[in-house]
Design goal:
two-stranded antiparallel ribbon
């Protein structure tokens, strides 16, 4: 997890997939970028998430690029590991908690493959979804994960009160996932 830019201390528990640890939505996005590409893009050695660039390109009014953020990447996951995890995330979208997104993200009315995972905190305190979609390669036009987009969404109250009433509860698939789908589209 540290190699994937997750700086939150994680408890060494066996039930990690069931949610005993929490990470920030930014950490989730960076981890999914690593799953998608096999690479990390650290801003600088020893620099934390507060330095993730918000501005990645500056252009003038004529479209001439004046400056571009050019991160150097480091490979930390093999294509096999990326493929196996990506397949798990695809199954979430086909038959699991993310199935609302199956065929919901489209380019020119053609459904794009989606990959991701929902998250719901205990007592419905927050709702999250992190995932990615491929994008066309500039050279051949084929969909490619290395050109893809990672999108993470989060829904919750500032004061951490539960998003639950007598007849409604907001969880990952009902809160953050619809926002993710709209953003991806």
């Amino acid at each position: 997890s540290k190699k994937m830019c997750i700086t939150t201390d994680l408890d060494p528990v066996l039930s990690f997939p069931l949610g005993p640890n929490s990470i920030s939505i930014m950490e989730a996005a960076l981890a999914y970028q690593t799953i998608m590409t096999g690479r990390v893009y650290p801003v600088a050695p020893g620099v934390g998430l507060e330095s993730v660039p918000i501005i990645t390109k500056i252009v003038d009014r004529d479209g001439k690029i004046l400056w571009t953020h050019k991160p150097t990447s480091k490979k930390i996951l093999s294509p096999r590991v990326c493929g196996l995890v990506t397949d798990i995330l695809k199954k979430v979208m086909e038959t699991g908690t993310g199935r609302k997104a199956k065929d919901a993200v489209k380019a020119f009315d053609i459904p794009l493959p989606t990959f991701g995972k929902t998250g719901t905190a205990n007592r419905f305190i927050n709702s999250s979804f992190a995932g990615f979609i491929p994008a066309p390669d500039d050279k051949n036009g084929q969909l490619d994960m290395k050109e893809g987009y990672v999108i993470s969404s989060y829904v919750g109250y500032d004061d951490n009160r539960p998003m639950k009433g007598n007849n409604l509860a907001i969880y990952g698939a009902s809160g953050a996932l619809p926002l993710w789908i709209d953003t991806a589209n």
